[in-house]
Design a protein that fits this description.
Blueprint lengths: L2 H4 L16 H4 L14 E2 L5 E7 L1 H14 L6 E7 L6 H6 L5 E5 L1 H11 L3 E9 L3 E3 L14 E5 L2 H13 L4 E2 L13 E3 L5 E5 L1 H6 L6 E4 L1 H6 L10 E2 L9 E6 L6 H10 L2 H10 L6 E2 L2
Parallel strand pairs: 2-3, 2-4, 7-10, 7-11
Antiparallel strand pairs: 1-2, 4-13, 5-13, 5-14, 6-11, 6-12, 8-9
């Protein structure tokens, strides 16, 4: 679901939403509703530089491909700023440090907007990074031991995604009536293997894989440590029809900016589709358009 179909909803800024801005913004006075920050920087050669926050892989790779191969013809240049922590790009966008960011999916976006009061909008999905269950100790699901430790995300939107994947594989059963996208470990109704769920942030799950029997790891974090969700995992999420497509997010009120629209058009171009399919031919990253 993108803003073009859902309409806009103005939300008051909160202290948690703003980093390094004036006290006016921190009081929730809607400082960003009309967007006081200029979009991009005009260069002497006539191009406009957009500063975009990303996760390093694959978002950073995709934007660097655009910058090197496509941006100039569209009158753009890209300054790609990498973040390892998912909690950082949205505050940076709200504070005007970024013109856009490209790292998040709809459930994360909604939890941030609703929980933090961010005034943000987004375009259509660009790609999906399938979640997968990895292990350095075991080669198959059947080898997972009774009482084994399973790492899962500690943020609500991605924890539900992880548990839904485990439930689809009949490793656990979620309580009746629970929306899988919003499920937590407290909603696990049946746990026949008595798994112990270890909660951690996405980056930590990748770094500590050898400390547990298995971990559900975000696709981008898996790629960063050299693991393929489709080739190296015990279990992988089906990306078809996934609600977890990553997209370009912007401040509310800037989505009609010509340069931001140009960037989004490039992200949805045949060239980018081909780049994704050629760079990740085994479906580790899948186009969502």
């Amino acid at each position: 679901m993108a803003f073009a179909h859902s309409g806009r909803t103005l939300r008051l800024s909160t202290a948690a939403a703003v980093v390094g801005v004036s006290a006016l913004a921190l009081t929730g006075c809607g400082l960003f509703a009309d967007d006081e920050f200029p979009i991009g920087t005009e260069n002497e050669d006539g191009t406009t530089t957009l500063t975009v926050g990303v996760s390093p892989v694959p978002q950073g790779d995709i934007l660097r491909f655009i910058d090197e191969e496509l941006a100039a013809d569209a009158g753009l240049a890209l300054d790609v700023v990498e973040y390892q922590d998912y909690t950082e790009p949205n505050p940076a966008l709200v504070a005007g440090e970024l013109d856009a960011n490209y790292f998040q999916h709809q459930p994360w976006f909604e939890s941030e907007v609703e929980g933090q009061g961010y005034e943000l909008a987004h375009y259509e999905g660009v790609h999906v990074e399938p979640f997968a269950l990895f292990s350095e100790r075991h080669d198959t699901l059947e080898e997972l031991p009774e009482g084994g430790q399973i790492g899962v995300n500690n943020d609500p939107s991605n924890q539900g995604r992880a548990l839904a994947m485990l439930a689809d594989a009949d490793l656990i059963e979620l309580a009746e009536g629970v929306d899988p996208a919003e499920a937590t470990i407290n909603d696990v109704a049946e746990n026949p293997h008595d798994f112990e769920f270890i909660e951690a942030d996405a980056a930590s799950l990748a770094r500590t894989l050898d400390d547990v029997d298995a971990s559900v790891i975000n696709g981008n974090n898996a790629l960063e440590i050299g693991l393929s969700p489709t080739q190296d995992s015990l279990l992988v999420e089906d990306p078809e029809g996934s609600p977890y497509a990553n997209f370009l997010a912007v401040r509310e009120g800037t989505e009609d900016d010509e340069n931001l629209q140009k960037l989004d058009e490039l992200l949805h171009s045949d060239d980018v589709r081909d780049y994704i399919e050629e760079t990740w031919p085994d479906g580790e990253v899948a186009p969502a358009f």
